[in-house]
Structures are given as C-alpha cells and as structure tokens.
C-alpha cells in the first residue's frame, strides 16, 4: 500500500475570507497543475483549468470575495534546455486565464496578496522585476506591500498568514526525515529551519503549522513544505499529523489535505474526531478547458 509521500497528487487550498468559496490547487504528476473551485457551503467542487507547468501555491492568494486570484507560475521554455518562463497573473477564480499578466524579467519568485476585493500587491525581490503586459481597469495594483509576520515581512505566504489570523510562534533549526528529504529536497539536504505559526481552532485547541525550508533558502523563494499539529493549550496534548500537506480552520471545522484527498473534521477532548472525506482528487486527468471569459 502506497504511503501519502508516494502518492503523486498534492493539494493546497486558498479560502476566501468574506465568502464561502475557495480554490484547491492540485498538482500531479510533476509539472501538471489544476485549479478546482470549492463551494464550501455545500462542499462541491468544479474543475476549471489545467497548466502544463508549476504553480507556487504558497505565493498565491484569493480575493476576500473569492472572485479573483493572484498566482505565480513557471513553465518550461520549449527549445531552451533548462530555461523557464515565469510570471505572476491575476485571473477570475477559479480559472487561470489572466486578466492581468506580469512576466518576471528577473529570476525571482513572484506572486502576491489581495489587500481588498479589487486591490492587489505583487511580490518583487528587486523593484521592477515584473514587466506589465495587461491590466484591467476594474482592478488596481498597489505600490506598497502589506506587512506580514516579523520573520518574513514581505513574503506573500506570511503576509497572507498574518492577515488570516495566524500568530508567529518562533523560528528554529529542523532535521528532515528521510521521507521529507526524498519528497521535497533530495537526499543531500538533511537540515534546514522552520518557522512555526499557530491559529486558534476552538476551545483550547490550536492548529500549529511549521513552514520548513532548507538552509540557505532565499527570502523570496526556495522549496518549502509544511508540518502540522493540533495542540491543546490547557493540557499540553499535541498530535502531530505527519502526512497532512495543507490544513486550515474553516469556520467551525478543521479542513486538511493528505494523499490527494481533502477532509473535514471537528475537534473533541482527545483531538481530531470523526473525519469526513470531502473529495478525492487522485483520478483527475489533464484536459484542455477554455475559461468562460
């Protein structure tokens, strides 16, 4: 039986703050990614579009009303060995088709965050790292970044985390397990650093997330993965969820992804109780879909 690390399907999700919608970013096999709209009120899912490339999920964001998305993507340059095209785009969720398109003119990690329903900020390690191809009249790009957590104040992942209620716990050295090394960094990378965050779930229960990076990862990019735990602040009980690849607090429930499946559950005195399978994404196949705009 395959372990979650051996499953080629990877999931990450973004939740709209002021609406009951979301977006699931599904990856797998390598260099293939799909966007899937999520109606969180009824837990129904709509596959939108695929990309034969890579989307950097942690550098993406969904507008508060759930109507627009900003994402950072790369795609192999046909005919240029080892060369990639990189861009940040704004689209109408849950689709990929750009309404604003910004090629990266330097080898940087892009992406951005939404400041409100119509205003977004783009991440740039060097001012002017994005060129502008098109911008819509009804949306506005902000010049000044929004402040994130003290560990990385201008990183989209941590700006979004601070905005969405995550608290900074601390930063420390981590040792990667053999499975983590093989999956994320290669067997030669054994150590790195972790940034631990926490978010209140209900009662005394908190969701803890440790964002793990290899040593030397640049401020604006680099490979990373997340570890998750649920912690009871009153009793000190800690449950490590080794195979969760994404987790969040969705209103009065906990939602998480593992082995290509999305689950929801509630917490009881002993931790995560009965879980409900919301969707199994493992059997999805690449297809060409036109956006309806």
> How large is the share of residues in beta strands?
over 45%
Task: Report the C-alpha radius of gyration, rounded.
Answer: 18 Å
Helix amount, in percent? under 10%
Q: In terms of structural class, how would the helical and strand content be classed? A: mainly beta
Low-confidence stretches: none
Mean pLDDT: 88
Number of strands: 21
| Domains (count) | 1
- The N- to C-terminal Cα distance equals 43 Å
- From the spread of the alpha carbons, the general shape counts as globular
| N-to-C order of helices and strands | EEEEEEEEEEEEHEHEEEEEEEE
Count of discrete alpha- or pi-helical segments spanning 4 or more residues: 2
Largest sheet: 5 strands, antiparallel
Describe this structure in words.
With 293 residues, this protein is mainly beta. The chain has one domain. Helix content is 5%, strand content 47%. Strands 5, 6, 7, 8 and 9 form a five-stranded antiparallel beta sheet that branches. The chain starts with 9 loop residues before the first strand and ends in a 13-residue tail after the last strand. The relative contact order is 0.14. The model has no long low-confidence stretch (mean pLDDT 88).
Indicate the topology.
Blueprint: E1 10-15, E2 21-27, E3 33-39, E4 44-51, E5 54-55, E6 61-62, E7 68-76, E8 84-92, E9 98-103, E10 112-114, E11 119-122, E12 140-141, H1 156-163, E13 167-175, H2 178-185, E14 191-202, E15 205-214, E16 225-232, E17 238-241, E18 246-250, E19 253-258, E20 261-268, E21 271-280
Parallel strand pairs: 11-12
Antiparallel strand pairs: 1-2, 2-3, 3-4, 5-7, 6-7, 7-8, 8-9, 10-11, 13-14, 14-15, 15-16, 16-17, 18-19, 19-20, 20-21
């Amino acid at each position: 039986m395959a372990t979650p690390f051996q499953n080629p399907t990877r999931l990450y999700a973004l939740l709209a703050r002021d609406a009951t919608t979301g977006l699931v970013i599904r990856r797998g096999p390598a260099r293939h990614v799909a966007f899937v709209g999520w109606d969180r009120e009824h837990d129904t899912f709509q596959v939108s579009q695929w990309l034969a490339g890579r989307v950097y999920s942690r550098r993406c964001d969904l507008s508060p009303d759930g109507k627009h998305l900003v994402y950072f993507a790369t795609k192999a340059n046909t005919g240029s060995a080892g060369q990639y095209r990189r861009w940040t785009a704004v689209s109408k969720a849950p689709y990929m088709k750009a309404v604003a398109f910004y090629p990266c003119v330097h080898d940087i990690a892009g992406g951005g965050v939404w400041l409100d329903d119509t205003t977004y900020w783009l991440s740039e390690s060097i001012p002017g790292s994005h060129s502008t191809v098109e911008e819509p009249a009804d949306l506005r790009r902000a010049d000044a970044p929004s402040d994130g957590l003290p560990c990385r104040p201008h990183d989209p992942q941590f700006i979004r985390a601070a905005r969405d209620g995550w608290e900074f716990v601390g930063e420390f050295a981590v040792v990667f397990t053999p499975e983590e090394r093989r999956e994320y960094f290669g067997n030669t990378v054994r150590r790195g650093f972790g940034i631990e965050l926490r978010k209140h779930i209900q009662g005394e229960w908190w969701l803890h997330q440790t964002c793990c990076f290899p040593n030397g990862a640049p401020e604006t990019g680099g490979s990373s993965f997340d570890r998750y735990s649920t912690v009871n602040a009153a009793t000190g009980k800690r449950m490590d969820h080794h195979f969760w690849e994404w987790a969040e607090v969705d209103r009065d429930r906990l939602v998480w992804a593992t082995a290509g499946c999305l689950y929801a559950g509630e917490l009881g005195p002993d931790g995560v109780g009965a879980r409900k399978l919301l969707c199994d994404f493992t059997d999805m196949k690449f297809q060409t879909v036109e956006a309806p705009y």
